[in-house]
Amino acid sequence: MCQYLHLKDIIATVFGKKAAATALISAGNNGVSGALIHLDSVSKSFKVGAAMVPVLNQISLQVQRGEFVAVVGPSGNGKSTLLNMVTGIDAPSSGTVHVGGHCLNGMSENDLAAWRGATVGIIFQFFQMLPALTLLQNVVLPMDFSAALPARQRRERAAHLLALVGLADQAHKLPNMVSGGQQQRAAIARALANDPPLLLADEPTGNLDSKTAAEIFELFCALVEQGKTMVMVTHDKELARRIPRVVEIVNGQVSGDWAQPVERYAAPPALQPALSSVSAH
To answer: Quick one: which of 166, 171, 196 has its CA closest to 181?
Structure first.
């Protein structure tokens, strides 16, 4: 029970709490550029014993709305820390982070949680599904925290999103009753619950077989085609080659940032009507 409560607290923090920050979310501060993500000279160090260990070093980066960006590089070089800067889960030691017109520096934890619930959908490598809740209840949870919809509509939207990712017949099962690939699909549905403009994924295919990983990737591509912005950390070189922009992080710095030609993805006809209604509350 204690572990369950701890995980629920984490999910409340990540996917937003019912908090008095609606005005903050709607107002924004229309900062430094038209980019959805703008990092300016961001550095991050962690204290290890008596020493400060640098993880990110003077990273400046912009991501435009509707982009699909892969973040690659060796393990332990700052990729996940970079995502944590964008989500506001962690704060930079120096530099500024603007996302969706909001400067995250100095925002309170409550304001950050409310902002995050409306702006960012996070997809974890290890799914982070609450084991005592069904898949449907897991997808409803972010909507409960943000209280953006009436209770009945939350369940209807959760059922719709699970159908979108091919889990309509699994909605009332517990996470341990479905496969890893199905849990990851449910995690994607949960990330879409509050219709965020930005999706961040940290090694989302790292624990999946190649066939399931390809299916998850196709779903990401289809969501970008529908207007979502996607930033994905990956070690999968084959997947990275299929993403239009690649940012390489080495030793906490941007060592490369390039565009590459990829085939334009078109969602299968059966998926198109469902995808077009992702934003329909």
So the answer is: 166
pLDDT in tens, 108-152: 998 998 899 889 999 987 888 999 999 999 999 999 988 878 988
Please tell me the pTM assigned to this model.
Answer: 0.83
Handedness of CA 10, 280, 71, 82 (dihedral sign): negative
Confidence band for 5, pLDDT divided at 50, 70 and 90: very low
Structure tokens at 239: 């997947």
Average pLDDT, the chain: 85
Q: What are the distances in angstroms from CA 132 to CA 5, 18, 94, 125, 148?
A: 10, 22, 40, 19, 24
Distance CA 56, CA 79 (A): 9
Does residue 117 contact residue 194 with C-beta atoms inside 8 Å? Answer: yes
pLDDT of residue 205: 87
Find, among 102, 122, 104, the residue nearest to 10 by Cα.
Answer: 122
Check: CB of residue 123 under 8 Å from CB of residue 201. yes
Dist. CA 21–CA 117, nearest whole Å: 11
Distance, in Å, from the CA atom of 278 to the CA atom of 219, rounded to the nearest integer, reads: 12
